[in-house]
Design a protein that fits this description.
443 residues; Citrate Synthase, domain 1; 2 domains; binds carboxymethyl coenzyme *A; transferase
């Protein structure tokens, strides 16, 4: 496997000059570590030992929680690299399973490795028949993210005793099972909501064709997979595959650091992804565009967003890391045009609304000063809508793709020498020690 390839860039940490921190008369020399590219980090692991203090960084905006060789983002330059390859090159030239292999094993597969990987994913795409029964426990109007989260968590009951996360082969098997089975669960969550029969995976299809077929085939009509649409689906999966230490990935790493079952770890990642500040934003963008309705309403909406007391945000805008354009948003804009032209769709007025909203926002000092630009979710919802995917499934598709990133990061975390449980500290602001009082002594 390419995992052991010695031609890979040497990412061994080089030691750089140290940083000196002083508190009063006490001083600590802290090592500064350099990665392959990107800012150095101050290694504060000895901070408490040397100075008796902890660092304070709510939201972890300035904290490197791990070292990783999977994904690199330069938020100021709008750069996203997977194992060194720019996202636009991958999105335009590779298939989703190729990118999955790259993220998992560090190198692009050769033809034989790719073929074996694809066949293996196909073998694992089937679900245990007992899993079907779980769906019946959900209300028909349950949100598909709830079904996905619950059912992926339930997979841990099917794959538990045989799993040994200290064994590389067992980790690899879990990773492949997850990448292969999550799309099937996702498509079945949709079928369940429609009251339609579940469609089993079909080995004749590519990964994305198979997903579309599981979503849209019916026993009474033959579903013809349109290659342009399958390619668009594949590209959307590639663009969402990994994004370094975001909230859901950090969740997977944290849960995984306890030694938990990998299927339970991914269920935790799905829960974290669901929030509107993270993967739920694609669904929220469409709701926002529907609420704005027409161009004339944009200025009033922008004023509402700028009024902090309104609590309204421009969904699909802003990013914790990108303070320039999000490179994924650009590729999605182009993909949208390909899909619309292939389907000969009447131009979606929502798209025009989105373009106009973006134009007004990027020229507005409020957004310029805060470096808020469209992110991946601003356009992904419009393409998914053109593909006939219902809004409630948007975040589910994000989860299908991100499963690849989660399992890659989970594996890397487990394989890190000296890996230990994630356990942040806190700044305690509650009551100091006090004695218990009986009811008779309380006001
Ligand atoms: N609309 C209006 N104001 C915003 C927005 C927005 N979308 N995003 C940030 N701001 C303002 C925020 O009010 C704050 O202003 P001030 O300095 O006056 O208090 C400033 O910009 C910094 O915001 P922040 O909340 O400190 O930034 P953050 O890095 O913590 O949040 C974010 C990042 C993505 C949660 C946020 O930009 C946001 O809520 N965006 C909308 C939701 C969204 O599109 N999420 C998808 C992210 S990309 C996909 C993914 O990774 O899941």
């Amino acid at each position: 496997m390419a995992d052991n390839d010695t031609n890979r860039p040497d990412t061994t940490q080089k030691m750089s000059p140290s940083a000196t921190i002083s508190i009063g008369t006490r001083q600590a020399e802290l090592p500064v570590r350099s990665g392959t590219i990107g800012p150095d980090v101050v290694d504060i692991r000895k901070l408490a030992q040397d100075l008796g203090v902890y660092s304070f960084d709510p939201g972890y905006g300035e904290t490197a929680s791990c070292q990783s060789s999977i994904t690199y983002i330069d938020g100021d330059e709008g750069v996203l690299l997977h194992r060194g390859y720019p996202i636009d090159q991958l999105a335009m030239n590779a298939s989703f399973p190729e990118v999955a292999y790259l993220l998992l094993y560090g190198e692009l597969p050769n033809a034989q490795e790719y073929c074996d990987f694809r066949e293996n994913l196909k073998e694992h795409a089937l679900l245990h028949e007992q899993i079907r029964n779980f769906f019946n426990g959900f209300r028909r109007d349950a949100h598909p993210m709830a079904i996905l989260c619950g059912t992926v968590g339930a997979l841990s009951a099917f794959y538990h005793d045989g799993i040994d996360i200290s064994n590389p082969a067992s980790r690899d098997l879990s990773a492949r099972r997850l990448i292969a089975k999550v799309p099937t669960i996702a498509a079945w969550a949709y079928k369940y909501s429609q009251g339609e029969p579940f469609v089993y995976p079909n080995d004749d299809y590519s990964f994305s064709e198979n997903f579309l077929a599981m979503m849209f085939s019916r026993p009474n009509t033959r579903y013809r997979v349109n290659p342009v649409l399958a390619r668009a689906m594949d590209r959307i999966f590639i663009l969402h595959a990994d994004h370094e230490q975001n909230a859901s990935t950090s969740t997977v790493r944290l849960v995984g650091s306890t030694g938990a079952n990998p299927f339970a770890c991914i269920a935790a990642g799905i829960a974290a992804l669901w929030g509107p500040a993270h993967g739920g934003a694609n669904e929220a963008v469409l709701a926002m565009l529907e609420q704005i309705g027409k161009r004339e309403n944009i200025p009033a909406f922008i004023e509402q967003v700028k009024n902090r007391e309104s609590g309204v945000r421009l969904m699909g805008f802003g990013h914790r890391v990108y303070k320039n354009f999000d490179p994924r948003a650009k590729i999605l804009q182009q993909t949208y045009h390909e899909v619309v032209s292939e389907l000969k769709l009447a131009h979606d007025p929502m798209f025009d609304l989105a373009i106009e909203l973006e134009r007004i926002a990027v020229e507005d000092p409020y957004f310029i000063q805060r470096k808020l630009y469209p992110n991946v979710d601003f356009y992904s919802g419009l393409i998914l809508r053109a593909l006939g995917i219902p809004t409630s499934m948007f975040t589910v598709l994000f989860a299908v793709a991100r499963t690849v990133g989660w399992v890659s990061q989970w594996r890397e975390m487990i394989e890190e020498p000296g890996q230990r449980i994630g356990r942040p500290r806190q700044l305690y602001t509650g009551a100091a020690r006090r004695d218990f009082r009986p009811f008779s002594n309380r006001n």
